[in-house]
């Protein structure tokens, strides 16, 4: 079996389980980085081949986290090859990567974090634009993809509950969340204005009748208009985790539920202790 055949088989068997974004990423990795392997027999490729490949990716300037994701794709492909009796071993298991810090740092002051939250709330109160509603929904811990793929059949306005099915979330597990009063009011308003049928997207582009692609320009404009520091739209999730645990003292288990994490260690990567914590601890020791 050639490497190319293995890749195609892996995609064919797993396509129903992968999100469109994951598939797009895998195809991009295959196109950009796997060209040298395509026609080779997988049985002829060994640990040395892949360790040199990984080393070269790192030397080219790719981040360790990115290279780790490329290695992970290779590894699951070889696991499949073992399952279908095309090879006996997974050479990627022995391949080494340098250690790296995968903690998600949100190094904004508490004052700045509060300003971002207040700006989003105020923007939502003063605007009825689609981006305003989407941005407010993101403040509830959702990923942008989850919000933009939400359909009316996933929303129960009368019980105040919405579901993020496994097919549209990163954790691949269905999640159920109770709406805040403000979110429920916003969704009721959208329902009255735009609802046609249960399969319709909650945030449907009224011109194309399709999903919005992105809101990068709107987000950049929002940051500029509110004199906020540059940050990604996805960083709102980091903000929620950091602010909730470090300032509001919300248990990390609760924040994990809000963000839809299946493993609490994932949530812990988003959290940052105050830089003054070491001084605080030593001061208490010296004063005891």
TrEMBL record:
Keywords: DNA integration, DNA recombination, DNA-binding. GO terms for biological process: DNA integration; DNA recombination. Residues 1-82 form the Core-binding (CB) domain. Residues 101-283 form the Tyr recombinase domain. It holds the Pfam family Phage_integrase. The keyword DNA-binding applies. InterPro entries: CB (IPR044068), DNA_brk_join_enz (IPR011010), Integrase-like_cat_sf (IPR013762), Integrase_catalytic (IPR002104), Integrase_recombinase_N (IPR010998), Tyrosine_recombinase_XerCD (IPR050090). PANTHER family: PHAGE INTEGRASE-RELATED, PROPHAGE INTEGRASE INTD-RELATED. Belongs to the 'phage' integrase family. This is Uncharacterized protein. It comes from uncultured Campylobacterales bacterium.
